[in-house]
Design a protein that fits this description.
alpha/beta, 12 helices
Length: 317
């Protein structure tokens, strides 16, 4: 396991700190920026209740750097975890290798897969509810219903006249919003797998079809009673999820993210060491690694009693 990990923003506090603690991480430090000139009380409470060992009122790239590199008062950690803005993501990217990271997250992506079992208001609400994350947050409706597509487009424009965060949501929708009409569930699944969005919300007559056929996504939300905001805030699954098509090869943050796999080897008998050495010797000769081959040859001589000329491969029996 990682002996030390860091968490830096409040939406990830419980999802990251608790996950790390369950994994057995012995030191978890958290960073969050000040609010109105002082530590944000709700964030500090969340950090404390989640089990953070150290809590710092510090945000942005400077927090990432302090945690990864260390300061006079902050000992460096081994792994950086948690989402942030584009600057934080770039800082994590540059620090990867010096420390481990969970993933490079952002901007938020939302795909709503729907059919005529739901209405345009519900789809538009769920799209704009995530578009408010920032002006570069894609929100896409994928449907087999042209009527639902047209109704959703109208509802988006209506909601943008009343949504308090409409300025950000409109910029995001105008730049990255999209409505795709497909011919079938099969085509919708193929498109969704190609997009590999962070959030995929399914509101169709048979949502289990997509549970079975989707393989590239960050988080999957099935049925109209479920939505991305539930997952972000209260439903319980981890919401530190892959973006930018990273769902093709990785999932989100989980206990295993903090665990390491170690291997060890031991050969117990002379005969076994000599037998393995004979094969190793010949493979090393094929690759031209004479020094490697001698590591095998010396054991073939000592444990197998064979006379192997220095720098040559063991001849087969």
């Amino acid at each position: 396991m990682c002996p030390a990990a860091s968490i830096r923003c409040w939406p990830a506090t419980h999802m990251s700190v608790i996950t790390a603690k369950v994994a057995g991480v012995s030191r978890v430090i958290t960073c969050a920026p000040p609010y109105q000139g002082k530590p944000a009380s709700a964030i500090v409470a969340a950090q404390y209740l989640a089990g953070a060992d150290e809590i710092y009122c510090l945000g942005g790239v400077q927090a990432v750097g302090a945690m990864a590199l260390g300061t006079q008062s902050i000992a460096p950690v081994d792994m950086l975890v948690g989402p942030g803005n584009a600057y934080v993501a770039e800082a994590k990217r540059q620090l990867f290798g010096r420390v481990g990271i969970d993933l490079l997250a952002g901007p938020t992506e939302t795909l709503v897969i729907a059919d005529d079992t739901v209405d345009g208001e519900l789809c538009a609400t769920d799209l704009l509810g995530q578009a408010e994350h920032g002006p570069d947050s894609p929100a896409v409706l994928l449907t087999t219903s042209r009527k639902l597509a047209e109704d959703t487009a109208r509802e988006v424009q209506r909601l943008l006249t009343v949504l308090p965060t409409a300025d950000i949501a409109r910029r995001s929708w105008d730049a990255f919003g999209e409505i795709i009409v497909a011919d079938s569930e099969e085509e919708m699944a193929a498109i969704a797998n190609d997009l590999a969005f962070e959030h995929v919300q399914v509101m169709t007559a048979a949502p289990d079809y997509f549970l079975t056929h989707l393989r590239n996504y960050g988080g999957l939300f099935l049925g109209p009673r479920t939505n991305v905001a539930y997952g972000d805030k209260v439903i319980g699954t981890n919401h530190t999820l892959p973006t930018r098509r990273a769902g093709r090869y990785t999932g989100g943050l989980w206990v295993g993210s903090f665990l390491k796999t170690h291997t060890y080897q031991r050969i117990l008998t002379d005969a076994a060491s000599a037998m393995v050495g004979e094969y190793c010797s010949r493979l090393c000769a094929l690759e031209g690694f004479v020094g490697h081959g001698e590591q095998a040859n010396i054991r073939v001589r000592r444990y197998g009693g064979r006379n192997v000329p220095y720098g040559q491969a063991v001849a087969p029996d």
